[in-house]
Every structure is written in structure tokens, then in C-alpha cells.
Amino acid sequence: INMHQGNRTTVSGFLLLGLSNQAEQQKVLFVLFLGMYLVTVVGNGLIILAIGLDSYLHTPMYFFLVNLSFADISSISTSVPKMLMNIQTKTQSISYENCITQMYFSIVFVVIDNFLLGVMAYDRFVAICYPLNYMTIMQPRLCVSLAVIPWVLSNAVALIHTLLLLPLLFCDSNTLPHFFCDLAPLLKLSCSDTRVNELVLFIAGLSVVTFPFALILFSYICIVRAVLRISSTEGKWKAFSTCGSHLTVVLLFYGTIVGVYFFPSTTHPDGGDKIGAVLFTVVTPMMNPFIYSLRNKDMKGALRKLLSRKIFLPLMPWASDLSP
Length: 324
Prior knowledge:
Elements: E1 2-5, E2 8-11, E3 13-16, H1 23-53, H2 60-77, H3 80-89, E4 93-95, H4 96-129, H5 134-137, H6 140-165, E5 175-176, H7 183-189, H8 195-228, H9 233-262, H10 272-294, H11 297-307, H12 309-315
């Protein structure tokens, strides 16, 4: 898959080594990641469907949750299906164009999750600190803007990284020690000068992590102060319970993102970037439906109605023949 360009040899594709090069582990990885992929797609898909069909959940909080669920489905779909196909077909190759495309969308959905978590923290801040003015502040126009802006910014960040990567040359080496085309391993593999790319990676990483995290931190400081002013223990618990799920995902997501994308690729230990990438591209999207839904009474009620015969069977007419 090498081609000559002038007096230099460049690659027209890459080899993805995956998570393990041991043949006996490939079947285990295939079953494991196929299971996680199906759980993620089905779980987040049910969230989107349940919220869409239940008018009671047509509120800003669940509107942002729909966006997060869609981003999670898209995020895991950029990397895992290709990895599963490579394991099944016993091939490791990916074309240069497909690799760049995969890298672009992986950046998009990582950045989207960053900003959406910040937006969801702001939503909880308004709901708890200004409950009487919540619907007045969180009007449909503002909610749509808060959802659209992260998509625009994430595509802008991905486009910048992609345009900076395209001029780079990849000489004789075309082997990526990763399970998908990630930006940091690609920069490490290039035989061109990547100092500008590394600098932009650091600055962009600093921006997309710091701004949403600052918004989250500010929101939770205000939330804690507001909750402590509540006299009843039951009221405090009810207020905190609406934030626990979001805070859990924030800690998991930002803890892994900082270690993988915040620093230049030369500081990554061997295998550390793959572990981190698995956590935030596979594990976090899989956990979100459980974290956000199973502890939420309204969401559980909507899922029960979705799976009940009154709502679910009309969507699957053939299933009515199986019902008693």
C-alpha cells in the first residue's frame, strides 16, 4: 500500500494493529466489543425513542440528553464496526481517505461530548438555582442554540486538525498501534515536522476541555450553595439526585480525555492511549444509558411505556401475533 511521490515513499493506507496481536484473544475481543457496541446502540437508541414518544419528557434536560445519546451512538460507530470487521476478515488495512475520515469524526464526537456535558451542567444550574424562572430562561430558542453551537464548534476543531494533518507525509512506516485512526498516533507516525500540529493539539485540547469544565465547575459550586440553603434533608437529596448521574459521567469522561488528548503524543506511554481511547469511545457511551436512565424515575417510566404493548407493538405489527 505504498506509493512513490517524487524521491520519497508515502503510504496510501495504514495497518491498524488493534488492541492485541495475539490470535487467541481476537475472538474474545470480537465478542466483547460486539456486545458493548450493541448495548450502546440499543441503550442510547431506546433513550432517543422513549423521549421522542413521551411528551412529558419534552423538556430542556431530556432534549440535551437526546443529543448526548445520538453523539454516543455516532462516537462508538466511528471506530468499533471497522475494528470488528478487521477481526472477522483477519485484515488490518484501512485506506488513507477512510483513515482521515475516521479521525475527523472521532474528533467531532469527542469534542461534542465535552460541550454537551457543559451545557447539561448549565441546565441543572438553572433548574436548581432558579427553579421558578427555569422555563422562562430555558426557552426553545436558547435550547436549540445550546445544542447547535457544540456541533458547529466540534466540526470546526476537527476541520482544523484535519487540514493541518493533510500536508504531512507518512513515509515507509504505515503501522498504527491502535484500533482506529486517532490523531495522536498519526502524528507520531508521520515523518514530517509535526511541531505545529502538536501545538495546535495542545491549544485546542486546552480550550475544549477548559471551557466546558469551567462551566461545569461554576455550575456545581452554585448548585452546592443553593442545595445547602434547603432546610429539609429530603429536599437536599432530591436536588442532588438530579446531578449525580451527570457528575459521574463528567468524572469518567474528563479523567480519560485529559490523559489521552490533552498532552502531545510523545508523552503517551505504550498502550496508555489505547486504554484511554477505549474508555471514552466505548465504555463511556455504553455506560451513559445506565447512568442517566436507570436512576431516573421519569426515564424508567418512559422506557416501560415504550416497551409495553400499547406503544411498542404498533411499531412492530408482527409482534402482535406473538402476544397472548
